[in-house]
Amino acid sequence: MQILRFPTLIQKEIFENLDFDELLVLSFLSKRCKQFIQTLQKNRFKKIKTIVYDFGWRDRISITVESVDSEYLLRLYFHRYDKSSLSPMKMFGITQDIR
User: Per the database record, which ranges form the F-box domain (predicted)?
Assistant: First the structure.
C-alpha cells in the first residue's frame, strides 16, 4: 500500500491510528515519509517531554519516549544479534557486505 499517494486527510487518519513505534519505523522509509509524518502529527509530537537513548552493556540499545503527563509513549529495546544470523539485503540495486 502506498500511503503517500492517498489524499492528505486520509493520510492524517492513517497516521493518527498508528502507535509511536509504527510511526518511527515508517519515518525511516524515506525523507518524504518522515516529513509527512512530522507535518501531519505535529500536535501529537508536542506532547513529547523527553526522548532517552540508552546504550547499555552487551550492545543493548533502548529508546524511551515520555509524554508531558509522564505516560510512556514508546519503549523499544534492541539487542545485538550474532552476525552469522544476518544476511545482506539488496535495496535499490545496492548490496552491502556484513562484516
Answer: 1-48
Rg (CA), the chain: 17
Residue with cell 523527553: 50
Cell of 28: 525511516
The separation between CA 3 and the C-alpha centre of its own chain, rounded to angstroms, equals 16
Residue from 95, 93, 51, 55 nearest 73 by CA: 51
What three-state secondary structure class fits 20? helix
Question: For 36-72, how does the pLDDT look when each residue is reduced to its tens digit (9 = 90+)?
Answer: 888 888 888 888 888 888 887 777 888 888 888 877 7
- Which residues are bridge partners to 78 per DSSP? 61
Tens-place pLDDT, residues 8-32: 889 888 888 988 888 888 888 889 8
Q: Which of 52, 44, 50 is nearest to 77 (CA)?
A: 52
Q: Which residues pair with 75 in a beta bridge?
A: 64
